[in-house]
Structure formats: C-alpha cells, structure tokens
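Quick check before the chapter quiz. The format below is the same one you will see on the exam, so make sure you can read both the input and the output lines.
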Amino acid sequence: AGHRALGLPPLDAFDVEQGLEEELLLGWWEAAAAAERRVPGPEEPARLRTPRLVQRALNALSHSAFFAGLGESLMVHAARQVRRYFTEPDVRSAVQDEFAKRVTDRTEVVVAHSLGSVVAYEALCAHPGWRDLTLVTLGSPLGVRKLVFDRLVPPPAGGAARWPVPVKAWTNVADAGDAVALVKELAPAFGRRINDVPVHNGARAHDARPYLTARETGAAVARALNQSDTSR
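Here is the expected output.
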C-alpha cells in the first residue's frame, strides 16, 4: 500500500537492475544481518547476481526493524533512487539545482539525511562562494566505498574526499544499527575536522524522525546557531 500512497508503480525483484541497484540491496542485506539477529544473512558471499538472489535479499530485509516498514516495492524504489542519482546526469543536476535554490544568505545550518547528505555534500563542494555553514549529516552513506564514495563529485583522490569550502563545522550522526550508513565514521575519509557522533535510534535505526529528534543532533544545531549569534 505504501508505494500506491506515494504514487509509485509497484516493483519487485525482477525489476531490480543489474549493477548498482543489486549491489545496494545486497550491501543492505549483509549490513542488516550483521546488526540484527532476526535478519537471515547470506550463507556465503554472493558471486552470481540473479533475481532469485535479489528476492532472498528482499525477503531477508523484510525482517529488519528498519526495512520491514518499507515493503518490497519501496525497498526497490529506494535502491533505484540512489542508482538514478549517480547514473543519470539530468537527475543529479535537477536535484542539485533544487538544493541550491534553498540555500540563501540567511542559511546557517544544513541538516541532511541519508541520500540527502550526498546531495548536500556535492552541492556544498560545487558552491565555494557560500560561506560559514555548518553541516549536520544523519544516517549518511557518504563513506560507503564503490557504491557511494567513489561516485562522488568532485571525485576523491588517494582515498580522501575533498572538504566542502563553505563548511566551517561538520557533525556526522550515525546509529550503529543503520544498514544504510554502512561506514559510521566519516572523519578518516573526509577530514579529521568532522565530529563523528554515535546515536541510538532504537528499532528504526535509519528513520529520519529519530535522527532529527536525537539529543546529539539538537546539540550540533544549537551549537552552530549559538556560535552564529555570538559572532554578530
């Protein structure tokens, strides 16, 4: 029912495209199995990508505290959203443009969740003229090698990503059980200036709501706004 409410066509394992969509679902499966006992994991690393294997991944993810609420079709749509952003230049450009429209001279803090943190990072890198912004990333997949990190613009060099010029402070908040934020600490790849903060969101490890209402997130935003007030 979820995909119908959102106006999305129903999708299943046979609709999953080879490449990035498959890799994302299998990566989420492995991460969820490692974090939650209720999620059955693959018996061995999967070499053969087939609809049956993808179906097993979707079935296993349905046992995950986070993915259970999505349903099979929305899980496929989530993987497709990521794939389209990284492989379709027109989609990427349109998303970046929408983000840029919302940043004004009065913007002080950017809070970005999940794929939104990728959009925010790339947009901030693309606009060095923006100044003195605080970035707070929540449940971010930015550090996931091959699937996300190595597809970023600007591309990382020597295993290190570029620091976005407009960002004066960056707090990254991640739940240990978040299967999307596979790499919990971004500082090793994005710069030691990042403050990596662990958080416990309960059963819904990747949901935006517990991230946004977490005390750690509020503290990061409040700190940025207080510093802005004192500098005026």
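If your answer matched, good. Strands lie at 109-113, 133-138, 167-175, 195-199.
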